[in-house]
């Protein structure tokens, strides 16, 4: 049977013409008159889309009709030790993983695949990192997270590049990117700033068997991140434990009176115990000190009684000292009056004056002369 079929292909499409199930031609955009005679003919319209050649059995078609497709479709093979970055019109649009095979239309888009060899050098180029972190590439970056690691190391921190469980490099502050295809790769960030820690409510017996509860505050920093990572699993727990041990050792070898009399000595003892031990782990203990010393209730009452007794004794001592001084002054005054009768008589008159101030009524016999002769006698 002979008949004519007219077909219109728009610019966003291509036509794959199959004759008796075999690909015979790739039809370009435009009008096409197809004559069918004694054969089975079909045309599959394929959307060019973003430039990728996406059809069922694409690889089979490339193998069986490669001479037909080659002028229109490009085959890209990525090696096992590299990745491919797909650029469309000089704009990054995708990534091909190691060992991948993709097909792209040669037109209308200008497609370029740039290969990035991995091998031992798996650090990403700074320009590529800058491209990926652009807001318009957020979706692309999310799609590539399984193939790469992007990590920012703050100004006050140190980065540790861990490849297959082993630290291979110390990273300076900044944004770092690495390909992790074919390897286990991560970046650990260690804060190098001064940090604080509180050791709360430690119940400890002093040398004289008094139960105390103490709180300790400490400041420290990570001095050697590499040594710290290789020495301990949980460095914060290690710092806390060493401060505990230092506190127990310092308190257990001192009496309560010594502890209360000199807290600075206790701080130095804690620092002297914990600092060298933490230094071997790459941790610098800057300072440590006891914030609070909390006594049991009955011990507080006893201490208050002791303080009260001490203050009472001090007050009594001061009182006796003042009485002694007053008696000594009286003795000196008596000796002075004994040697000076006139001064003694003046003292009597002074006393008389004070007495008469309190007398409401005074009766005098014999007039002023009697008063002078009987009450006051001056020699």
Beta fraction of the residues? 35-45%
Overall pLDDT level = 83
CATH class of the domain at 195-295: Alpha Beta
Return residue spans where pLDDT drops below 50 for at least 5 consecutive residues. Answer: none
Tally of helical segments: 11
- How would you describe the shape? rod-shaped
Question: What is the CATH architecture descriptor of the domain at 195-295?
Answer: 2-Layer Sandwich
- The CATH superfamily of the domain at 195-295 is known as Band 7 domain
Overall number of strands? 18
- Rg on CA atoms, Å: 51 Å
Structural class: alpha+beta
The CATH topology name of the domain at 195-295 reads Tetrahydropterin Synthase, Chain A
Largest sheet, in brief, is: 3 strands, antiparallel
Which series of helices and strands comes N to C?
EEEEEHHEEEEEHHEEEEEEEHHHHEHHH
Query: Strand order within the widest sheet?
Result: 3-2-5
Distance between the termini: 175 Å
Helix content: 25-40%
Can you give a write-up of this model?
With 379 residues, the protein is α+β, with helices and mostly antiparallel strands. Among the domains are: 118-193, no CATH class; 195-295, Band 7 domain (Tetrahydropterin Synthase, Chain A, 2-Layer Sandwich); 340-379, no CATH class. Helix content is 37%, strand content 35%. The chain contains 11 helices and 18 strands. It has helices at residues 58-64, 66-69, 126-132, 138-143, 225-231, 235-252, 256-261, 263-279, 297-339, 341-357, 367-375; strands at residues 2-9, 13-19, 22-27, 30-37, 41-47, 73-77, 82-88, 91-96, 101-105, 111-117, 148-153, 157-163, 166-171, 174-179, 185-191, 195-205, 211-222, 283-294. It has a 3-stranded antiparallel beta sheet with strand order 3-2-5, with no helix packed on it. Strands 8-7-10 form a 3-stranded antiparallel beta sheet, with no helix packed on it. Strands 13-12-15 form a 3-stranded antiparallel beta sheet, with no helix packed on it. A hairpin with a 2-residue loop joins β2 and β3 (22-27). The termini are far apart.
